[in-house]
Design brief:
There is one protein chain. By secondary structure, this protein is mostly helical. The chain has one domain. The two termini are 25 Å apart.
């Protein structure tokens, strides 16, 4: 019996394309500058007015939201893969486990060889746990995610509140000597981390890889330990959305409009308020870490849901345009685009490439974002005319099934 492949969910590919493009706007700071650049436009060097505007734009529109959106799509894709494999008479769970184990290996190699900002290893590890929760109905999945998210954000915020409070007392002139000493140690540690980041980034390819592994070969596991609660929440929300028919376009249009409006307003208002406060307060480091890691968690989640609903509403018309189809193709090849972007950006900023690390502020880094967007949008459409999927998507699928799958499209017979 010949099984016909089920049709793709084009809107899901479109949203994934937006997410993989948007992630670069946030990741560019880690590619191009030391870690402190993610916390302030004035680190590691004072920034211009344009740098402040660029940083604020990223903070309000992209920071945290693209990660949430991409993670929700990963959860939806996990569940979709299992359901489609089961419908084809195969063991979807076994294949998904194998698929995630290969993803973990690829993610670790991504970290070891190229960049310590990898997210694939995290997805693989959390995804293995998420499979035990996949049977819930949409409401149960969403509620479980909300409860976990609230607990996770609360625990994480409580750990950073003392440092933020010390920082606030220093700014107000009421700090004790102990406050000043603790904060000075925090700032000094950040400075040393920046020096380490710079030395590692400007080293040779083998030197940087060796330094990463010698300094902290278990770093991807620590990323899992620090981020599993947030990531699992997003994955559960993605599963809930898929199971509810969200990505199939089965939600009533009025409900989708309501979700887009309420979520975007509820998430955007506190984000704008925080961005204004951070600018007026000169981006205090402990408070920024607290907000970006935990305090803005719910606004991030709300805006990601709003973006998803807005894109679903726009999908029918957007997919009928050339730009919409380019973004859709970028989403179909998101795995190749994600890792390909790392290759491109490390070639530009690393010592084994053009060694541009640390040379550009937040505003100028947007030129590299636009370059990355152009790269991610230009190649997938012509490639997918002749091939079934992106090159790394093909490799991942072949490894999962442990056989070489066909990649070229069959010629159209006339």
């Amino acid at each position: 019996m010949t099984l016909t492949a089920p049709p793709r969910l084009r809107a899901l590919d479109l949203i994934r394309g937006v997410a993989v493009l948007g992630i670069l706007t946030v990741n560019i700071a880690s590619f191009a500058a030391p870690g402190s650049a993610t916390l302030s436009p004035d680190l590691p060097q004072p920034g211009s007015a344009a740098d402040h505007w660029a940083y604020a734009t990223t903070l309000v529109l992209f920071e945290g939201k693209m990660r949430a959106l991409f993670s929700m799509l990963f959860g939806a894709s996990m569940l979709l893969f299992i359901e489609r494999q089961d419908a084809a008479g195969r063991d979807g769970i076994a294949l998904q486990v194998r698929r995630l184990l290969w993803l973990a290996l690829i993610g670790y190699a991504h970290f070891a060889l190229l960049w310590n900002g990898d997210i694939l290893f995290l997805y693989a590890c959390v995804g293995l746990g998420a499979m035990f929760l996949r049977q819930g109905n949409p409401i149960a999945l969403a509620l479980s995610g909300l409860l976990l998210f609230a607990a996770w954000q609360g625990i994480g915020a409580s750990a950073w509140l003392p440092s933020a409070a010390q920082e606030a007392r220093i700014a107000a002139g009421t700090a004790t000597p102990a406050d000043q000493s603790a904060h000075a140690n925090l700032v000094e540690q950040r400075r040393r981390d920046d020096q380490t980041d710079t030395a590692e980034a400007l080293d040779s390819f083998t030197g940087a890889a060796k330094a990463r592994l010698e300094r902290d070969s278990g770093y991807p596991l620590r990323v899992v330990a620090y981020n599993w609660g947030e990531t699992l929440t997003y994955i559960l929300f993605g599963m809930a959305l898929l199971r509810s028919g969200f990505f199939d376009g089965n939600w009533p249009r009025r409900m989708m409009i309501r979700l887009a409006c309420v979520s975007l307003f509820a998430g955007l208002f506190p984000t704008l308020a925080f961005a204004a406060w951070a600018e007026m307060s000169a981006y205090p480091q402990a408070a920024m870490h607290l907000a970006l890691s935990y305090g803005l968690g719910f606004p991030h989640l709300l805006m990601a849901l709003g973006y998803a609903a807005l894109l679903m509403l726009a999908a029918p018309r957007l997919l009928a345009t050339a730009p919409g189809r380019w973004i859709e193709a970028a989403g179909r090849a998101a795995f190749s685009n994600y890792l390909g972007t790392t290759l491109l950006m490390t070639a530009l900023f690393s010592g084994w490439g053009l060694a541009l690390f640390g040379e550009y502020g937040a505003a100028a880094r947007w030129y590299f974002v636009l370059l990355g967007w152009a790269a991610m949008l230009c190649w997938p459409t012509p490639w997918l005319r002749f091939y079934r999927c992106g090159p790394l998507e093909w490799l991942w699928r072949s490894l999962t099934e442990w056989r070489i799958l066909p990649i070229r499209r069959s010629p159209v017979r006339t």
